[in-house]
Amino acid sequence: WAKAEGRGRWATYDPERRAREQAKSAMVVAMSAALERDEFTVDYQPIVTLTDGEICAAEALVRWRHPERGLLGPDEFIGLAEETGLIIELGRWVLTRACEAASRWLRDFPDARLVVSVNLAARQAGDPSIVATVSEVLRRTGLPADLLQLELTESAVMAIAGEPLPALRRLAALGVRLAIDDFGTGYSNLAYLRRLPIHSLKLAGPFVDGIRSSDRQGLVDGRIVDALVRLAHALGLSVTAEAVETVGQADQLRALGCDAAQGRHFGAPAPESEITRYLATRADGRREPVA
Ligand code: C2E
Ligand code: MG
Ligand code: MG
Ligand code: MG
After folding, report:
1. From ligand 2's centre to the CA of 189, what distance in Å?
2. Beta carbons within 8 Å of 92's beta carbon, 6+ residues apart
3. Contact 143/180 with Cβ under 8 angstroms?
4. CB within 5 A of ion ligand 3: which residues?
5. Coil/strand/helix, residue 204
6. How many angstroms from the chain centroid is the CA of residue 162?
């Protein structure tokens, strides 16, 4: 009859929930300590132009080298960091690291003009000091604004505190590029999308995953991707496909007019040095796959 009494009241005495809550607060404490102890690290995944196969950007993806639990992916701690507000500090740290890396690439390989793409949580985008933070990081690292792209998911855009449109306009006014991440998985209001000062759409993995199969569903997914690419281009946006795992997917995406792609087929997320090594190899005139 605990349920009949109302969840809120009895949940307090639920030992499982209590254990979960304790684990959560332990995580929060550990996460702020981890920032000080430099346990976070940023990997970079190449983003490749589909027409020529050249690397054009790299997405910064945060990881946590947890002393006991090993390497943790963002899905294990970003949500909690958002909930607690720690994402502001962690996000600034990632942004700084990413811009530092990109300015090293610009210094050593100026012709490549590699863009670094950084994920922005709703809470960061809605933070009144975000514009000051981004321009300060750009100034300190010397990275030209147009070599920084900020990625926001549709739901992050909708969840921006205050008004999404002015917040995004202020960011765009810095000269940085804005991309909608995981496009197609969220709530898409096309009329609204039209008004956003964005530069590109990142097509969510599940659509890309579907086009590999030659069955009916694969055909449908292919048509959806076709429609989304046309839609993006009609809106003046470029399209990057995520989670491209096979050459077949890459070929089909190219045939559909998709502009760029990332995924294990082109290269998994890896340390900065791996992108640097690839750029160096290319500068030497030798060509080899990104991976
Ligand atoms: P995302 O921005 O959509 O990043 C792409 C995800 O796809 C990454 O997962 C990447 O490792 C994964 N991926 C790469 N290649 C493939 C592939 O061939 N197939 C498939 N299925 N997946 C592939 P990851 O690194 O686990 O990151 C998960 C999410 O965490 C990211 O999704 C992003 O939303 C968030 N995230 C990562 N770093 C940050 C950060 O610094 N700040 C914020 N706010 N969010 C972050
Ligand atoms: Mg992303
Ligand atoms: Mg994504
Ligand atoms: Mg995502």
Report:
1. 20
2. 133, 137
3. no
4. 181-182, 242
5. coil
6. 22
